[in-house]
Predict the structure.
Amino acid sequence: MDYTNLIEQALEAKKRAYTPYSHFSVGAALLTRDGRIYQGCNIENASYGATNCAERTAFFKAVSEGETEFVAIAIVGGMKEQKPVEYAYPCGICRQVMNEFADADFQVIVAKSIREYKTYMLSDLLPYSFGGEDIR
Ligand code: THU
């Protein structure tokens, strides 16, 4: 799988992050099974707990537009207006939101650039997960 475009879209989304408090900007690009891409950035708030992460922004945009099938998400993060220097792994809440909508083959790509990235199965990042099947 070629993730170049997905990573590029995540890098572009990072530029739109609203991060006046942490100055840590995250961009995400979520790929649907039929090939559409939804971008997301983190959106901070003066009441810090009201902040929304980039990954959840992308998921909530997509689901609210009627999307239900996802294959991968690319994530980049780093200081505002700078290229990523480290991999930005999704936080626990975002992993849980991914788990709600992702199938077993869902891929999480953490990237520093289009050439430097790592891919994971969501089940590697969130083992022994809690999901809808556990409350039936
Ligand atoms: N952040 C994300 O956007 N995604 C994550 O998975 C981890 C953290 C954001 C939230 C906050 O705006 C900033 O990074 C610093 O925590």
Strands lie at 24-32, 37-41, 70-79, 107-111, 117-121. The two ends are 35 Å apart (CA to CA).
